[in-house]
């Protein structure tokens, strides 16, 4: 402000007038101007051969019945199963309470919310309990994503609607088979919890973790897919029933034998074509049944050969290439879900640092973001209002420690695998005074420390230098 009392502009050209700054800051801190944005459906989604947004929702339950899909999605969910928390607050009671709630939510609530990975969203109901005079979060009830809907007011989420609820009694407040659960306010924790899994172009609805696996799954397990072709090939060609040669004549059959007659002879007796009998023999051979053939032969003028002959195929179909194709599609499913196949396969060749550890690190770093988003949801909707409810307006911070570092520490306290080209740590003798060695370190060392010499892996030069130092010390003592 100058001598005349006029506010002077700041370095960025803005006025120092408090009212003007307050007005501008209110604009900056207001809700986003793009609230209510709806993404445009991409043009390729209208093609008749695709429409994954429609087909994927229809196929999710079928995809979850496939062992490859189920195994990969469960592995992906396990990426945030074991986490550690950093909690800080000026009030130790709040610190202990927040830590207990976070641990309980991660044990009971996160596995429930992770059921939204398949559809991309999920709605749930928070349950609370009173413990030692404190209101605590207890558990989470979840519902099918297709029965949950986000409630908004002026494009802002305010609650979660759950449909298909049976009215327990005529006096029940439940009407029209639905219940609306409120979201959190500043002082009241949420009853309804809404989780959007990795949203893309939308704040409130995420994308399915299975979307990248939908195409290879269709080619693997859908009608006329690789698995169907393999099954058909094994049934049709890998078995390859016998070839039966039969005489061009009819056989008399007995009605009591159970074999149906094909025709009747001139005297009304039932007869059957030999061709039908040969077909029956070939079809029943797949059951492993014993086969008995007549020993009749053709007359010499017709060659004298056997009238009935059974010939088994010498070669069957090789399904190994088809199985290789199916395995390739299975790997594509793993990639599409977000789990590199190296993490699921046995360590047959690439299980070293570059074969398994690098994909695992990238996998955990991606899951770190998902874990942070889930914890932030719990803090905003449940934890912060709970703290205000129980303790008043006391601030706290809660975050998840680096999952990658946590896993490394869990492996016997540190990472047991050494990266390629890593240099071994330098060892230092216990009685050396510094990098140059000398007697000072040994002379100043406590007696109890010198009583138990430490064992090191030493090079030849280091051992020679150590012996020389000991010899010099003995000579000085004798000279004295």
Strand order of the largest sheet: 3-2-7
Give the overall average pLDDT.
79
Largest sheet: 3 strands, antiparallel
* Content of β-strand: 5-15%
Number of helical regions? 14
Class per helix and strand makeup: alpha+beta
Shape, principal axes of CA atoms: elongated
Rg, please? Answer: 39 Å
What attributes does this structure have?
480 residues; alpha+beta; three-stranded antiparallel beta sheet; 14 helices
Model description:
With 480 residues, the protein is an alpha+beta fold. Among the domains are: 81-209 and 355-410, no CATH class; 241-311, no CATH class; 440-479, no CATH class. Helix content is 39%, strand content 14%. The protein contains 14 helices and 13 strands. The strands form five sheets. The protein has a three-stranded antiparallel sheet, covered by helices on one side. It has a three-stranded antiparallel sheet with strand order 4-5-6, with no helix packed on it. The protein has a three-stranded antiparallel sheet with strand order 9-11-10. β4 (148-153) and β5 form a beta hairpin. α5 (214-221) runs antiparallel to α8 (320-337). The radius of gyration is 39 Å and the shape is elongated. It starts with 17 loop residues before the first helix and ends with a helix.
């Amino acid at each position: 402000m100058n001598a005349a009392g006029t506010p002077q502009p700041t370095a960025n050209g803005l006025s120092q007038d408090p009212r003007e700054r307050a007005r501008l800051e209110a604009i900056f801190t207001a809700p986003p101007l793009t609230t209510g944005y709806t993404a445009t459906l991409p043009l390729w989604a209208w093609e008749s051969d695709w429409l994954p947004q429609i087909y994927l929702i229809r196929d999710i339950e079928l995809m979850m019945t496939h062992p490859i899909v189920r195994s990969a999605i469960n592995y992906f969910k396990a990426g945030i199963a074991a986490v550690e928390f950093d909690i800080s607050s000026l009030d130790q009671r709040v610190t202990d309470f927040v830590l207990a709630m976070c641990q309980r939510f991660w044990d009971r609530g996160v596995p429930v919310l992770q059921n939204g990975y398949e559809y991309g969203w999920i709605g749930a109901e928070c349950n609370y309990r009173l413990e030692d005079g404190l209101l605590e979060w207890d558990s989470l009830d979840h519902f099918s994503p297709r029965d949950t809907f986000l409630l908004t007011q002026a494009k802002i989420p305010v609650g979660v609607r759950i449909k298909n609820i049976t009215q327990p009694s005529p006096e029940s407040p439940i009407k029209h088979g639905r219940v609306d659960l409120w979201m959190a306010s500043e002082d009241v924790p949420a009853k309804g919890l809404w989780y959007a899994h990795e949203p893309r172009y939308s704040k409130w609805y995420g994308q399915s973790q299975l979307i990248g696996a939908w195409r290879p799954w269709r080619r693997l397990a859908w009608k006329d897919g690789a698995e169907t072709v393999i099954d058909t090939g094994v049934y049709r060609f890998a078995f390859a029933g016998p070839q039966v040669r039969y005489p061009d004549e009819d056989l008399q059959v007995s009605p009591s034998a159970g074999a149906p007659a094909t025709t009747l002879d001139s005297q009304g007796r039932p007869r059957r074509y030999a061709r039908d009998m040969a077909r029956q023999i070939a079809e029943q051979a797949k059951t492993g049944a014993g086969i008995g053939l007549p020993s009749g032969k053709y007359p010499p003028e017709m060659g004298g050969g056997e009238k009935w002959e059974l010939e088994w195929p010498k070669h069957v179909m090789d399904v190994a290439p088809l199985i290789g194709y199916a395995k390739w599609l299975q790997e594509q499913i793993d990639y599409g879900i977000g789990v590199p196949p190296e993490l699921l396969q046995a360590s047959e060749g690439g299980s070293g640092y570059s074969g398994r550890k690098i994909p695992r690190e990238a996998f955990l770093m991606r899951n770190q973001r998902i874990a942070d988003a889930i914890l932030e949801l719990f803090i905003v909707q449940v934890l912060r209002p709970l703290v205000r409810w129980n303790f008043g307006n006391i601030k706290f911070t809660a975050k998840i420690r680096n999952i990658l570092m946590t896993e490394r520490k869990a492996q016997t306290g540190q990472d047991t695998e050494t990266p390629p080209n890593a240099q071994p740590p330098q060892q230092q003798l216990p009685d050396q005074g510094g990098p140059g060695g000398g007697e000072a370190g040994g002379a100043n060392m406590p007696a109890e420390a010198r009583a138990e010499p430490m064992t090191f892996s030493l090079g030849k030069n280091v051992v020679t230098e150590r012996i020389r130092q000991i010899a010099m010390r003995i000579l000085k003592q004798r000279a004295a």
